[in-house]
Design a protein that fits this description.
- The complex is a heterodimer of chains A (373) and B (163).
- Helix content of chain A is 71%, strand content 2%.
- Chain A has 16 helices and two strands.
- In chain B, 34% of the residues lie in helices and 31% in strands.
- Chain B has one helix at residues 6-60; strands at residues 64-68, 77-83, 86-92, 98-102, 113-115, 120-123, 128-130, 137-139, 148-154, 157-162.
- The chains are: A mainly alpha (373), B alpha+beta (163).
C-alpha cells in the first residue's frame, strides 16, 4: 500500500455522521439497490392519474386503523364490561373520545377509499392480464374490510351495535342447509350476547388482521411487480406520446401529499363530529326507530328489503341473497371475461356492467335512506 | 476541466450558496411542519395513555387514612392496608406499641411481610430485612428504611397520618 496515501482532509471532514451511519447500513443491507429501483420506477402521467392515489389512501386509512385500534385496545374490555369500557374511553379517559372517533371515522373513510379504488381499477380496466391476481386479492381485501367493519361495529355494545349485529347475522342464517349452524357458531349461541362480543373481538383484532396482512403484502408486491396499469385511452396512444413521472421522489411526494390531505380531513371529521355512544344494549328494549345499517351495507340491505316485499316469506330473502352472490361472482370473474388488451365488444360489456353495478349501488343506497321514513 | 475565469467562478458560487440556503429553508420548513403534526398527534396520545397514572397520583395524594376497627388488632400481629394507592402495614407489637410502615421494599418494590416469630420485616424477593419497630433497613440489599407513618389510636379506629 502507498504509505503516503491518506483521505483528503476536507473530504473526510465533510462526511457527516448521518452519511457514515447510512454507508455502514447500506454496505450490509444494500439500501442503494432499493433506492436505485425506486428511482428507475415510473408512474404514468395522464388525465386519469388522480385515481392512482386511492389505493395508497386506502393503505393510509388502514395504518390509522392499526394505530388507533392498538390505542383503543389499551382500555377496551370485551365481554360483559364491553359497554362500560367504551363509556370510560369516551367520557373518562383524556382524549379517548378523539381516538375512538378517529377509529370510527377512519373506518368509514377506508371503506370509501377502497370502493373508489375498486371502481377506478374497474373502469381503467386495470384487472386485465397480467393483473388478475391484483383484482382477486383486492376483492379479498374488500371483503375483509367489510368484515372488519361488521365485527368492529358490535364491540361498543350500545343499542345500535346490538341490533345491527342481530340483523346482520340473520343474512348468513338464511343460507340453505348450513345457515343456522354456521351463524350459531359465529354468534356463539342463538342470541347476540357477551359470548358474541368475545368472538367478534378475537375476529376483529387477531383473526382478520392475520388473514388481511399477508394478502395486503401480496397485493402491494403485485403493484410493485407490474407497475400502474394504463387505462385503454392511454394504451391507444403511441409510446412516444405517453408521459411518465419518476416514482421517487415525484410520485412518492404527491402520494404523501394526498396522505396529508387525508389526515387533515380525518382530523376535522373526528374532532368536529365525534362518534356517539348510544345507550347500553338491552335485549328487552325495542329496536330504536329508524335503525339502519351503515352506508356501505345500505344497498345490500335495501335490495333484500325490496325483494322481501315483492316475494314475501323466505323466498324473497333467498332470491336476494342468490342474486347478490351471482353479482359478486361475475364481478370477480371479470378479468377472465374482458381479456382483450384493445377495446372490443367484451370490453364494452364489462364497462356497461360496471356502470350498472355502480349505479345500482348508488340508487339502492339512496332508496334505502329514503325508505327509512 | 479548463480553468474558469475568476468572475464567473464567484458568480457560480453565489448561485450555489443561494440554492443551498433555499434548500435549508425548505428542509427547515418541512421539519417544523412535521414537528407540529407530531406534536398534535403525540399530545392527545400521551394524555390518553397517561390518564390512569395521573388519576393514581391524585388518589395517592392522601395525608391520612382511617382504619375502622383496627384497634382490635391483637398484639403480635399485623394488618395490611392501602395508604392512598401504596400498600402499607399496621403492626401491633407485643409490648403494646403501634407502628405503621409503608410495605413497599426500598430495594425493588416487592411487598414485604411482617414475621413476628423472627421479629423482623422480610422481603422474599431478594432477602431484604427491616426492623419492625422503626422500619430501619438492617440486612440485605435495601438501601433505605421503609416509609414511616404516625399512628393515633382512637376509640374504635386507628388514624394513620403521613409523618
Amino acid at each position: 500500500m502507498d504509505a503516503s496515501w491518506s483521505p483528503k482532509p476536507d473530504v473526510a471532514r465533510s462526511r457527516s455522521l448521518a452519511t457514515v451511519i447510512y454507508e455502514w447500513v447500506d454496505e450490509r443491507l444494500g439500501l442503494e439497490e432499493i433506492l436505485a429501483l425506486a428511482r428507475k420506477k415510473t408512474v404514468p402521467d395522464h388525465k386519469y392519474s388522480f385515481w392512482y392515489y386511492w389505493g395508497g389512501l386506502s393503505l393510509f386509512f388502514f395504518f390509522v386503523q392499526v394505530f388507533s385500534g392498538v390505542l383503543l385496545l389499551v382500555y377496551y374490555r370485551p365481554g360483559p364490561e364491553a359497554y362500560e369500557s367504551v363509556r370510560q374511553i369516551t367520557y373518562d379517559i383524556q382524549f379517548g373520545w378523539l381516538i375512538r372517533s378517529a377509529h370510527s371515522w377512519s373506518a368509514n373513510l377506508m371503506v370509501f377509499a377502497v370502493f373508489v379504488h375498486m371502481f377506478s381499477v374497474y373502469f381503467m380496466k386495470a384487472y386485465r392480464k397480467p393483473r388478475e391476481f391484483g383484482w382477486w386479492s383486492g376483492m379479498a381485501l374488500l371483503a375483509l374490510t367489510l368484515l372488519f367493519g361488521f365485527s368492529g361495529y358490535l364491540l361498543p355494545m350500545d343499542d345500535l351495535a346490538y341490533f345491527a349485529t342481530k340483523v346482520g347475522l340473520e343474512i348468513p342464517a338464511a343460507l340453505p342447509l348450513v345457515g343456522t349452524f354456521l351463524t350459531d357458531i359465529v354468534r356463539g349461541g342463538p342470541e347476540v350476547s357477551e359470548t358474541t362480543i368475545q368472538r367478534f373481538f378475537a375476529l376483529h383484532v387477531v383473526i382478520l388482521p392475520l388473514i388481511y396482512l399477508p394478502i395486503l403484502a401480496f397485493h402491494l408486491w403485485l403493484v410493485q411487480k407490474h407497475g400502474n396499469a394504463l387505462p385503454p385511452s392511454e394504451e391507444a396512444k403511441p409510446e412516444s406520446e405517453r408521459r411518465t413521472i419518476p416514482f421517487f421522489p415525484d410520485f412518492f411526494s404527491l402520494d404523501l401529499g394526498m396522505w396529508l390531505i387525508a389526515l387533515n380531513v380525518l382530523s376535522i371529521l373526528a374532532s368536529l363530529y365525534p362518534w356517539q355512544l348510544g345507550p347500553q344494549a338491552d335485549p328487552l328494549a325495542p329496536a330504536p326507530v329508524g335503525i339502519h345499517p351503515e352506508w356501505y351495507f345500505m344497498s345490500q340491505f335495501q335490495v333484500l328489503k325490496v325483494f322481501g316485499r315483492w316475494f314475501p316469506g323466505a323466498a324473497g330473502e333467498a332470491l336476494g341473497i342468490s342474486l347478490f352472490t351471482l353479482a359478486i361472482v361475475i364481478w370477480a370473474a371479470i378479468p377472465l371475461f374482458d381479456t382483450r388488451t384493445a377495446g372490443g365488444r367484451r370490453a364494452q360489456i364489462a364497462t356497461y356492467f360496471g356502470y350498472f353495478a355502480l349505479l345500482g349501488m348508488i340508487v339502492f343506497s339512496i332508496w334505502g335512506y329514503l325508505d327509512l321514513k | 476541466m479548463p480553468d474558469v475565469p475568476a468572475t464567473e467562478h464567484s458568480l457560480e458560487q453565489t448561485e450555489v450558496a443561494k440554492d443551498a440556503s433555499r434548500r435549508t429553508f425548505v428542509a427547515l420548513g418541512i421539519g417544523a411542519l412535521g414537528a407540529c403534526y407530531a406534536g398534535l398527534i403525540g399530545y392527545p396520545v400521551y394524555q390518553y395513555l397517561a390518564t390512569p397514572a395521573r388519576k393514581a397520583v391524585a388518589q395517592g395524594a392522601v395525608t391520612q387514612t382511617v382504619l375502622d376497627g383496627a384497634d382490635k388488632l391483637p398484639p403480635g400481629s399485623s394488618l395490611m392496608f392501602k395508604f392512598g394507592t401504596t400498600p402499607a402495614m399496621l403492626i401491633h407489637h407485643t409490648d403494646g406499641s403501634w407502628v405503621a410502615l409503608g410495605a413497599v421494599c426500598t430495594h425493588l418494590a416487592c411487598t414485604v411481610s411482617y414475621e413476628p416469630e423472627q421479629s423482623r420485616i422480610y422481603c422474599a424477593c431478594h432477602g431484604g430485612v427491616y426492623d419492625p419497630k422503626t422500619g430501619q433497613n438492617v440486612a440485605g440489599p435495601p438501601p433505605k428504611p421503609l416509609t414511616r407513618y404516625s399512628v393515633e389510636v382512637q376509640d374504635g379506629r386507628i388514624v394513620v397520618t403521613k409523618a
